[in-house]
């Protein structure tokens, strides 16, 4: 069997086109331009690339982009002051603080200082609570992107066995909540799970978000299952730096029914969903109808 490749890059382009269409209508009919502020502290090379990409795509869909680049030794006070200003700025509908933050900064404190209505990452404790109780919230971008791809591929997910490998606040836990919301039977597995291969083999939907290169082997995958690989790991192979996921793609693709590649799978959907969340936040702030199909 050879799996269907779920093309996240193409899917993300469709989501961005939908966002751009809504933004154009908002600007024309309401005279409103959604705005996204991205805050980067320090010079982590991967974060710099992601932030640049966010800024570029924000402008491409017709939104206003506000980039704030702060030095690595920025104090918590300075960062919290900036967030206070952005919370109060009516031109800013979404605020994102790029993670990871330098070690001297308290990420939880910083994230929880963002106005929950502008928390387009969905990491604020209020949004976490709302999602966990099935209420309207801002939904974290990576899990939202995974859910969109799963719904697109399967239609209804009701009754499917979903295994999420990884228990992070950013991906694993919200992913499990979203799958539960779509009536899957959900297991969260992790590095201490007993007999992880057999737990994975029970999955109709297997989401790998452990951050370990190619940890999920081909024979851990149930024949015909859908595999969503959230991992982005840089490894050295054959004298070259390569980007691989948390799944042994070549082996899993011979067993799975469908699989996301790395690169070109979940990653591009993360930024597309950030733009979708910014549009949603803008519509909610102005009590305008929310775009359909761009949130849960
Ligand atoms: N505040 C946040 N910080 C971080 C998040 C987040 O959602 N919010 N997620 C990640 C990084 N990230 C976005 O910020 C991100 C990661 C990867 C991609 C992506 O498109 N990846 C490409 C490969 C790109 C490459 O070569 O590195 C792919 O998978 O095809 C987009 C966004 C951590 N921080």
UniProtKB/TrEMBL annotation:
Catalyzed reaction equations: (6R)-5,10-methenyltetrahydrofolate + H2O = (6R)-10-formyltetrahydrofolate + H(+); (6R)-5,10-methylene-5,6,7,8-tetrahydrofolate + NADP(+) = (6R)-5,10-methenyltetrahydrofolate + NADPH
Highest rank taxon of the organism: Bacteria
Keyword NADP found: yes
Ranges where the Tetrahydrofolate dehydrogenase/cyclohydrolase catalytic domain occurs: 6-121
Listed PROSITE patterns: THF_DHG_CYH_2
GO molecular function: methenyltetrahydrofolate cyclohydrolase activity; methylenetetrahydrofolate dehydrogenase (NADP+) activity
Domain Tetrahydrofolate dehydrogenase/cyclohydrolase NAD(P)-binding per the UniProt entry, residue ranges: 140-284
Alphabetical list of Pfam families matching this protein: THF_DHG_CYH, THF_DHG_CYH_C
Known EC number: 1.5.1.5, 3.5.4.9
Binding site for NADP(+): 166-168, 232
Keywords (A to Z) from UniProt: Amino-acid biosynthesis, Histidine biosynthesis, Hydrolase, Methionine biosynthesis, Multifunctional enzyme, NADP, One-carbon metabolism, Oxidoreductase, Purine biosynthesis
Pathway given in the UniProt record: One-carbon metabolism; tetrahydrofolate interconversion
Any GO BP annotation: purine nucleotide biosynthetic process
Record text on subunit structure and interactions: Homodimer.
Family designation: Belongs to the tetrahydrofolate dehydrogenase/cyclohydrolase family.
Function: Catalyzes the oxidation of 5,10-methylenetetrahydrofolate to 5,10-methenyltetrahydrofolate and then the hydrolysis of 5,10-methenyltetrahydrofolate to 10-formyltetrahydrofolate.
Protein known as: Bifunctional protein FolD
UniProt organism field: Gemmobacter aquaticus
Lineage, opening ranks: Bacteria, Pseudomonadati, Pseudomonadota, Alphaproteobacteria, Rhodobacterales
Gene name, Swiss-Prot/TrEMBL: folD
